[in-house]
């Protein structure tokens, strides 16, 4: 069993920053990849960023490349998403998830409950 719990969402002005956290517990995440997804009202779920839990190789959606940074703290079993230069179009519920396979952005087997990020203009 895997549990994922996001935190750190909130309301921020355009141009501001937020850091999301995802506390992971349960089965080991060794050699697996983790990702952040988001879903805005009326829109499809969107891949945001992914990372290999062990090696740190990262992958970003074009829409966030250069503004967001995904990272892990293995000692704390925690995944992070540092979001800078936020835009109103970044407004969404953000989820962390364990990817089914590294390099495949669309599939995951476990997902957290999500945290709301709202960016005002």
Structural summary, described in words:
With 121 residues, the protein is mainly beta. It has strands at residues 2-7, 10-13, 18-26, 33-39, 46-52, 58-60, 68-73, 78-83, 92-99, 108-111, 115-120. A hairpin with a 5-residue loop joins strand 5 and strand 6. The chain starts with a strand and ends with a strand. The model has no long low-confidence stretch (mean pLDDT 94).
Question: What attributes characterize this protein structure?
Answer:
121 residues, mainly beta, 7-stranded mixed sheet, 4-stranded antiparallel sheet, 11 strands, 0% helix
Question: What's the layout of helices and strands?
Answer:
Layout: E1 2-7, E2 10-13, E3 18-26, E4 33-39, E5 46-52, E6 58-60, E7 68-73, E8 78-83, E9 92-99, E10 108-111, E11 115-120
Parallel strand pairs: 2-11
Antiparallel strand pairs: 1-3, 3-8, 4-5, 4-9, 5-6, 7-8, 9-10, 9-11
């Amino acid at each position: 069993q895997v549990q994922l719990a996001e935190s750190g969402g909130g309301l921020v002005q355009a141009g501001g920053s937020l850091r999301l956290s995802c506390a992971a517990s349960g089965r080991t995440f060794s050699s697996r990849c983790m990702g952040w997804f988001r879903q805005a009202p009326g829109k499809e779920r969107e891949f945001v960023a992914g990372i290999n839990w062990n090696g740190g190789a990262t992958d970003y959606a074009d829409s966030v490349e250069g503004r967001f940074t995904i990272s892990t703290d293995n000692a704390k079993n925690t995944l992070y998403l540092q979001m800078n230069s936020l835009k109103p179009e970044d407004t969404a519920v953000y989820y962390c998830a364990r990817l089914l396979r590294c390099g495949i952005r669309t599939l995951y087997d476990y997902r957290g409950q999500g945290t709301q990020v709202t960016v005002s203009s």
